[in-house]
Write a structure and sequence with these properties.
- The protein is of the alpha+beta class.
- The protein has a single domain (about 5-275), classed as Carbon-nitrogen hydrolase (Nitrilase/N-carbamoyl-D-aminoacid amidohydrolase, 4-Layer Sandwich), CATH 3.60.110.10.
- Helix content is about 25%, strand content about 30%.
- Strand 9 (about 145-150), helix 3 and strand 10 (about 175-180) form a beta-alpha-beta unit.
- Helix 3 runs parallel beside helix 4.
- The termini are far apart.
Length: about 300
Amino acid sequence: MEKIIKIGLIQQSCTADIQANKEKLSKNIAEVAQKGAQLVVLQELHNSLYFCQVESTDNFDLAEPIPGPSTDFYSQLAAKYHIVLVTSLFERRAPGVYHNTAVVFDSDGKIAGKYRKMHIPDDPAYYEKFYFTPGDLGFHPIQTSIGKLGVQVCWDQWYPEGARLMALQGAEILIYPTAIGYESSDTVEEQQRQLNAWITVQRGHAVANGLPVVTVNRVGHEPDPSNQTNGIQFWGNSFVAGPQGEFLARANQDEENIVVDVDMVRSENVRRWWPFMRDRRIDEFDGLLQRFIDE
C-alpha cells in the first residue's frame, strides 16, 4: 500500500519590490503545480526582504491583517492549481500586536488554519523580538485535504518539543518555512558548522518522530540597511527528509524549485521498527516544564 504526496519546494531570493516578489512566487507555484505538486511550501516572510536586520517602526507598515490582501492572493493561487499551500506572512493582529504567521490554504482556496511563530529570536541581524509577539495558538497540526500538517516557522525548528507536540497530535509531516543565512565575519569552517547543525537538528526531528520533514529557506544576499553588518547571505539548502532522516531532496544555494514524492505510509512502518512513541517515559518528563533544573 502506498500513499504518495508530491511536495513542491520554492526556494527563491527576494527584493524590496513586494509585488515583484509575489509575481515571481506565482510563476514558481504554477511551475511546481504543473509538475504535479499537491502540497507547496514557501519560505519565511516571502513577500518582502527579511526586514528584521534592523529595528525600524516603519517596517510595521509591511504587516497585513489575516484575512487580508495577501491571503486573498494566495487563496486564489491555491484554488487555481488545486494545491495545499503553506505561506508565511507578517500579521497585523491589532495596533502594536504583530505576529510572524504561517497561513495554510487548502486546495479549494479556503484557509485551513494558521500558526503563529512561538520562538522569537533576538540576535544581531535577526531582531525579531522588536517586531513579533510570541505565538499564542500553541503547537497544533492543521488539517488539510492531504493530511495533518505540523507547521512551525524558522527558529522553532531548533526545538524538539514543538516537533514532538505536533507528532503527538497526529501530524503527518513537519514543515518549517525558514530565513537563515551566513554572517560574513564567520570563517568558512564556522559557516559550514552552522549549516550542518541546522540540517542535522531537523533531520533529528524526522528520526525522533518517525515523520517526513520539509524545510524551505530563502537564498540570495540581502544588505543591512543600517550598514552595521555586511548583510545576510541566505544559505538555501531547502530539503525534504524521510522518517529515518534520509534525504529525499535537497537544494543548493541558488534559486530552485523542487518537486519530490513522499510516501506517507513509510512513517507507519518506521514507527513499527523504531517504537519511540511507545517507549517514552512520560512519567519522568515533568522537568521539561522548568527553565533550568538547578542542583
